[in-house]
Amino acid sequence: MPTAPHPRSTDELFHALRENHRLPYGRTRTVAAEELVDAAERFAEPVPLIHALLELQEAYTYGSDPRKSPVVFARLLALFDEQPEAFDERLRHQLFWRFKWVANALRALPEIPLSSLRQWLTEMRDRYEKEGLGLQPYYGQAYQLAVHVGEDTTLAYELWAGRRRTPHSDCEACEICERALYRIAAGDDERALEVWAPVLAGKESCQEEPARSVSYALLPLLRTGHADRARELHLAGYRACRRNPSMAGEVGRHLEFCALTGNEARGLELLAENRNLFDEVDSPLDQLDFLTGVEVLLSRVEGLGHGELPVAGYAGRAWTVAGLCAEVRGRGEGLAARFDTRNGTKAHSGRRKDRLDRAPLLDALQLALRTRGLDDLAPGDAPVAASVSRTAAAVPEDLPELICRARALEEEGHPDARACWARLRTLVAARDYTHPEDPAVGPYGRLCADLLCDEAYRAAERGDHASAVDLHEEAAGLYEDAGVPDEVVLARACALLAAAEVPGEEGEDEVEVKAAVLADAHAAVVRLQEEAPGLAPYIEGRLLRLRASALGVRLQTTGDQAHAAVVFAEADLLQEFATRHGLTTQVSGAMLLRAGTYALSGDLPAAVAEIDALRDRLASHGPAWHLPRALGLRGRLQLGLRDAAAAHADLAEGLRLAAAWPADAVDASRLHGDLAQACMHLGRPDEALTHLTRSAEADLRDGKRMDAFCTYSNAAQLSLDLGRVEDCIALLDSLLAEPDVKGGELDDRLVAQLRLVRARALHAGDDLKAATAEFVALAAESAGWDDDPGSHAMIAAETAMILGEAGEFDRAGEVAERALAAHALSPRYELVSNCLRELARLRAQRQGPDGLAGALAHLAEAGRVADAARAAGFQPEGRSLETALAYEHGRVHAYVGAYEDALTALEEALALLGEPEPEEGSAGEWAECVRLSGAVEGIYLERPAPALVRLDAAVARLTALGRLEECEPLASLAAQLRDEG
To answer: I need a surface site. Which of 109, 525, 545, 821 has the fewest CB within 10 A?
Structure first.
């Protein structure tokens, strides 16, 4: 079925060809190109058909379909032989350029005899000689065939590399890659990297470069000790080739790089992103290259003991690492054998074996901000297991001993109880489980209740309070059946507090409602305790802790200082009781609660004093596992006291001590998050970025996915702010590929925020096409956010500017109108003004006088926005909107050659800015306005004398203020005017 109506004229055909040429390579573009060839044949004119055939051959070539490319070229060559006059100079150049495409396609097909490959090169040489073209491209293809076959390449290389380039030679970047690969084959990594330098630096590029060179250069960079450069190029280079069937070999080499640098988990993540390549790559040579890289990765993962991990592979079935590795091995061996049979050598099998036999080059190289190990890739929907401490106590093997040990540790509040409960949960779930007949252990129902309570505590920790309520209530019923009344009381009390934490409906009185619910929960726990005399001390202590916690959460919720006294009273009651009964864990809990209450009351010094007393007590009496928590709170208090250095010291020590305990014993996410904040205050943003990502990883391990993604979003924004664009994009690509994100299960606004940061990063990384596509999609989606028009205004404004930068001014204007409409509902004065001024500047700069009317229309709208902002009392963060508008009028008129109008506008902007003062931050803007005024007046209006007066006065003013950096461009312009005068 046709994908679009057939063109009815040659003009429509050429328009359709141009539109198709803009599409990415792949099935859609190829099918459309095939249809356009059918349409071109109907016009019975050679030129439209030539253009259509050229487009189709390109689609086949870069869509990794080498079998069809030579067929299309044969038609083009026949047309040239029959009607050479139909080929103008450009079409003739294209035709002879593409002899190389056919040679590459034939090499990629093992069913084509070697004699046919040599025959084609002879045809190429004869045709070039007949046309009077230089033979360097022919010798380049002869060299590449020698490499492919595995012959001695010395002579072939000299015959090619020693010749002068011609207009039909491969581009400079491609030839540099071939020269570098020649050095690699000779074992000279250093020389190869020297040859590659211009391409790896981005000075030479083409359709395939530098992505192709980058993929080959990764391992030489590692072997020569340039790991950081390899990491940098991997991030940028992988993004340029991912999911592209014509660059499947490059993707395979990136997978191999991951496998050889301790990044097997990232390798599997990238493999999943490129699962389309298993079915969309029609080139056998590209298949072999890709599958060898895949096998290197899978063999490494299987060798590390993770052969049963699920992995993305060929469509139609579920794969494990081991299963896919066996499948890939068989296919790879078969392809290599076919090429070797055709070529009469063992070259391809030998190269494949060399890659598979490589040992890892580094134990670990952090490639991405999001560090994941194979243990983190849990099958299916299973939660990621939290890492446990090396010092955790051994779990008893004897079942009755294990049950008793778990309960004793639970009474103590010891973190090792979790390991015991986890082991018991596994044992109880087994079909052959037999409950011990031991009075010390009690009935089976009691153990089930114990396990439910442990599960409830975990649910509450990850914020699932509703599940915690159900689990505690179910446990209470089982405890009652088992005849354990103390535990019934405790379970019901825990259910009460969990129920109070369940989020209610949002509304104006949300805080008051929650405060009342917490007060009711406190009262209910008090009644439970009063109605159950003779409770065990540890149960009494737990109940007192619950009571105090309910009131503490109420204080935190309301911020009402009138609620603080009762929290102190409950904390004192708990501390006195716990001290009397030797409940060290509850003594520590009471002191932590007191410190927190002081902090909530605004008395940070008293809170620090309480924590210091607790720290001393913990050092002498324990429990030791509370020390990281105490230091974490002390660090946060120091942040509140604006002592970032002390905060960093406390938090770092807390994190160090936390490593001695199971991961779920300490809130490592909070420690890392607070350390990130301390690092930012200390001017150490890179260290802060590390802590942000580790905070997010800890939340993921604990099942707190929303918290994790919010933290990752902050990390992505910080990495972008630091100029680490590729790190930012790689992190966001990884997050957006998560199953719950792709499945629409994660909050859509959070996902949109991640995509927005990614779009900004793509723009910062000069990938304007990808950035534009993402911005346009986000603008369309956010248009439906009726509850948040302000965010739509922001996204639409940014989108309009990106479209303007891409030269699509009509679309930019339409999106800007949508931004204005949303702005009318939820004002975003500065953002919308910036958008309109930028569109005006871009129109004038790109279109010159033809764009002046459109530019002035944008500025007029920006003027109305400025008027509305002034009427509303809006204060922008930097210069006034009126000043910015006057400056932009100056630039716009300067771009279109209206220099008198430009100077008038710039002088208005200077008047609005006023002369810079010592304490103001406007010196840079003022200096730039003076510089542009001086350039317009002195150069374009040819009035250097007044321009010099302006510039010299500004230099003197800035010098007096000590703003020497801002002086430099003004002094340079003044010197230029004097030299020219």
So the answer is: 821
